[in-house]
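User: Assemble these into one structure.

Assistant: Restating your components, then the assembled model:
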Amino acid sequence: MSKQFASLVFLWLIATALPVAAYTLADFPFDDPKKEQEFRELTGKLRCLVCQNESLAASDADLAEDLRREVYDMMKAGRSKEEIIKFLVQRYGDFVLYDPPLKPSTYLIWFGPGVLLLIGAFVVIRTLKQKKSAREKTLSAEEQQRVEALLNTASETQGTDK
Amino acid sequence: MIPEIGHLALILALSLAITQAIFPLVGTFTNTRSWVAMARPVAWGHFLFLAIAFGCLIQSFLTDDFSVLYVATNSNSHLPNLYKVAAVWGAHEGSLLLWAFLLGGWAAAIALFSRGLPAHVVARVLSVMGMISIGFLLFMLITSNPFERIFPVPAEGRDLNPLLQDPGLAMHPPMLYMGYVGFSVAFSFSIAALMGGKLDAAWARWSRPWTIIAWIFLSLGITLGSWWAYYELGWGGWWFWDPVENASFMPWLAGTALMHSLAVTEKRGAFKSWTVLLALFAFSLSLLGTFLVRSGVLTSVHAFATDPARGVFILIFLCLVIGGSLMLYAWRAPSISSGGRFDFVSRESFLLINNLLLSVLAALILFGTLAPLIYDAMGWGKISVGFPWFNTMFEMIAPFLVLAMGIGPMARWKHDDFAHLFRQVRVALVISLIAGGVALLPMFSHGKMLVGLGVTLTVWLIATHLKNLQERLKHKHGLKGLLRDLAGGSRSYYGMWLAHLGVASFIIGATVVSNYGIEKDIRMTPGSDVTIAGYRFVFDGVSKTPGPNYTAYRGHFRVFDGANQVAVLEPEKRHYQMQGRPMTEAAIDPSLLRDLYVSLGEPIDGGDWSLRVYYKPFVRWIWLGGILMALGGLLSISDRRYRIVRKLSKSEAATRKAGTNATGNPATETA
């Protein structure tokens, strides 16, 4: 019972940690609208580390606010996007990036789907070749009759409307 | 008392589910006709007890029975009645009950609408559904009983998560679950067919309408979820590739592939084993989706550790369902005749390509969703796989799908030739390329390349489908033919047509809003104004308003287009009494061409507020696309050949006789 209650509380905590964007980026003004857009995009691609699944731009957690401030200060100090990302990854690891970087340990993520597609394409081409040379299976007259009887029955009585 | 009745009803439903799973199935193998005949009445009883249990839980919520742990955790005496009912499926236990209730409902529907089916097919289908129900009911009774009592009884409930206190989200889970559970029908038909060892056109025709109905619900459920996220979460996004969203999108992709594959199996007898496999996948992904969302495993692998019993049960159940069905498939599939010869260029080929791409998309979403878990579990480091990755993958694969969608319906079954197809699509090709090229001009695209792609694909879909319609009506005497088609037996063609245009609507909506949307976060003083995309938003300050179980700050905005006032927007920021965090309620002025969107941020000193003011062009087209797809599905199942005609024709009587004569060696198997 107590265990169950604990798990309920836990689930409730998860549920309430869903994104509730209560704050805005209004406190981070830039003179250059391009910079402002860049800031918005950058914080959108960074993960709030303590939230369930929210970007820095959308989270109202305290840590997210601190990190936003940090990113803002770095941008104001004229540091490039790459430098900021490098700094954050050094501190928090790849987890902070919604866009996983391309490196040996992530080859699986980036190239896996391509391999999957190739396998799929191979299967399709093989099937097409088989189908082209396959013999048409013909039903005997008797079988044909039964199929038609069944189909007629099905189409007349099978219900779908709910 | 009421909760105990509910609990008892659950136990009785379980015993009926066991009966439903065993006797009819065994009966079909031992030729015990009375056992086979049990299937329908037992399915009815099973549904009845689930309905009683479901009703009892609703009653407990409506009467604020906080002695029930689940009610105490998810409701509150001040909660409006609508949300008390919606709170039934607001968390883990109740969602499972809803799931089981809907499963019982689908089984009862099959019992009711399957009079034309051979008795042993019905028996096997219902028995497979009984097995699934056993899993859910056991899971509920052992680890997640919604009727569990709590003592001492709390004076007040903890309230429903405020995010869920919204009409859109009240409807979202039932829709989604109708879809998930609906795929269990296609799954059960497939398992039944594998047991019988005979898959034919009749089997496909029986499964098809059920699959389409499930797909309609799932499409609407996803659309509703996306719309809800847009207006409720306050940041104006309509899709974030959140694991919860992915969990519903994977079965949709598999189900879409299944629907198309079933069409081929029905019309041409090809793709049989592939269709069966897709049916197994669609339902397996639905199960996975249900459990992924509710178990908390996505947040962290360690969530299982908080309640090992649940985690272990889920794993075993998934292994049994997925593993068992795949084993049955591996055993029986080789004996399925492949049938249906076709050439490289034929409608079958295009549908095969469609199936491949949809399956690859589903697989890669599964992969992307689980990759962080896999990396963590294998000790390869903690990573995030978020929207940039999913977007990139989708943008690389989906265009080919759309390309095939345009050509596929033009191609002839079995054999076509390139020259003929090219003649059919060349105008559409030229028009769409020109449209894309124009959209790419700097004055329109502002350097955003994806605009060109989106416009090209949209125009391509519309142009090819118009051409297709024209070709069709050429042989049918124009408009008169169209009306006759719609009145008569060709609705499934128009269903396809409408659903495909829904995809076009979705693409243009997503393209425009992603590339031309304007988002501004600003600080405003009451009385000041801001102009975005030509619209002037005047901020008239914030007032305090009470709600039933919350108090709200309500912002007042007037929006002007030039001198004309076009809208009054009143976004809210709500503080629910029982839950700590404030909620935003965005105010939106919707129209087909653009949404104007305001949400309240934080109060800043001196009466100022931080605000989000968004301009969202064409965003409605995204959900319009979802609705069109669902309507297309609806039109398609209203096609005459699926309709109920309650008359006993001679042929049916004959088939019935044949079916019962061949007991044990049932009709479809001998066909």
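The longest helix of chain B spans residues 201-232.
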